[in-house]
TrEMBL record:
It comes from the Bacteria. The keyword Iron-sulfur does not apply. GO terms for biological process: regulation of DNA-templated transcription. The chain crosses the membrane at residues 288-308. InterPro entries: Sig_transdc_resp-reg_C-effctor, TPR-like_helical_dom_sf, Tscrpt_reg_LuxR_C, WH-like_DNA-bd_sf. It comes from Winogradskyella pacifica. It holds the Pfam family GerE. Keywords: DNA-binding, Membrane, Transcription, Transcription regulation, Transmembrane, Transmembrane helix. PANTHER family: DNA-BINDING TRANSCRIPTIONAL ACTIVATOR DEVR_DOSR (PTHR44688). One of its GO terms (molecular function) is DNA binding. This is Regulatory LuxR family protein.
Length: 407
């Protein structure tokens, strides 16, 4: 059982240490307000800080890329919008919130192609949605999802279904975020224009314009007027279509979408260059430190080799000296033992006084004749004593006797 708990802690540990640092809802609100005020560069810098922060996990970075996509979308730079969503998708695959993030990114990609009026891409991405995908969408994204469903129904001439989906979207945003209602009323305007209900067209236009001005979102002011321009074109009212289009052009000039897009791209490139420069400097520092460490290691190895060589030479000398000392000790010990044993052997054999005298003279190097003269005995008597001594001591001749025994 204890093992089981350890396994649970082991698998949950990465989750505990990679908890996100940002509140995605708060971040979206902050970036949305900055973008509404056309402070796009401030938005980009804020989001870039999150992406470059070492403490940011994949969840944080994915949301930062998504908000960057929103920012570029606000200035009609759809290429960069898709690029940022793809970067968000890469981070999503590494996150424990993969399903939630991928659902959001899928919805945002679809909305980009919807704004670009690329029906084939919208329909292709729409097929990837299922109940599990939809459940991960925020209320605001869900409202935009219903807007797309409503527009798709218009393309398929299913006008009842179209109105139902658009009404769902309006109901959600009226409660959660009415700032985005102009986007849905633009779709309703298109529906009623198709149906030929011109009163409802103008009602939808006026409601959309009301919310755009109330929440001070210039981009929605522009798109609701674009919707009205298309309506005039549909009914061949080219005079009003031209007037409305001129108004849209003026509003776009005021909005400075192109200029803002260029500024954002310039800022994006500058940040990229800064990242590359930082990376290059970090690499150079790393190479320098590696070189210093390598030199230190090489010097250390050389010193160690020298010390090892000195140690081996010293050890060899000590070994030779020890061998010499050991041999000397063994030699001296042997001599001492021999002398001691010789004396003990002589004492143990109870040699006669005359025999001891003969042995003493033998040790002095005397000949048999000289021993006879010294002891006043004949040479034959000396030989007789020597024979007895050899037998008692177990030696062969006088040379061995002289080397082995001492008195």
């Amino acid at each position: 059982m204890l093992n089981h708990y350890f396994k649970i802690v082991f698998y949950l540990f990465p989750v505990l240490i990679t908890a996100q640092n940002i509140d995605p809802v708060a971040l979206e609100d902050e970036i949305s307000k900055l973008n509404d005020q056309q402070h796009y560069e401030t938005s980009l810098l804020k989001l870039n800080e999150i992406i470059e922060d070492p403490k940011s996990d994949s969840f944080d970075k994915a949301h930062a890329h998504i908000q960057m996509a929103y920012t570029f979308k606000r200035v009609y730079n759809y290429v960069m919008t898709i690029n940022k969503l793809e970067l968000a998708e890469i981070e999503a695959k590494k996150s424990i919130h993969k399903e939630e993030l991928e659902a959001k990114i899928l919805a945002e990609k679809m909305l980009v192609y919807f704004d670009m009026q690329d029906q084939s891409k919208v329909l292709m991405l729409l097929e990837k949605f299922n109940d599990n995908t939809v459940k991960h969408l925020t209320r605001e994204t869900l409202a935009h999802y219903y807007t797309v469903l409503g527009s798709v129904a218009i393309w398929r001439d299913d006008y009842i279904k179209a109105e139902e989906n658009l009404d769902h979207a309006i109901a959600i945003l009226e409660k959660d975020n009415p700032k985005h209602l102009p986007n849905i009323y633009r779709a309703k305007l298109a529906l009623y224009s198709t149906l030929g209900d011109y009163n409802k067209v103008m009602t939808a236009f006026n409601k959309g314009l009301y919310y755009a001005k109330k929440h001070n979102v210039p981009i929605y002011d522009i798109i609701i007027h674009e919707g009205l321009t298309k309506h005039y074109e549909n009914i061949h009212d080219y005079e009003n279509a031209l007037k409305t289009q001129q108004l849209v052009s003026n509003k776009r000039d005021e909005y400075k979408a192109t200029t803002n897009s260029e500024k954002l791209l310039a800022l994006q490139n500058r940040l990229k260059q800064e990242r590359l420069q930082i990376g290059l400097e970090a690499e150079e520092k790393q190479q320098f430190y590696l070189s210093v460490i390598s030199i230190f290691v090489i010097v250390l190895i050389i010193i160690l080799l020298i010390l090892l060589r000195v140690y081996k030479q010293k050890n060899k000398l000590i070994l030779h000296e020890n061998q010499y000392i050991r041999k000397e000790v063994e030699r001296l010990s042997t001599q001492i033992d021999t002398k001691h044993n010789a004396k003990t052997i002589l004492e143990s054999h109870n040699l006669t006084e005359r025999q001891l005298e003969v042995i003493k003279l033998i040790k002095e190097g005397k000949t048999n004749k000289e021993i006879g003269v010294e002891l006043f005995i004949s040479e034959n008597t000396v030989k007789y004593h020597l024979k007895a001594i050899y037998e008692l001591l177990g030696v062969k001749n006088r040379i061995v006797l002289r080397q082995t025994y001492e008195l």
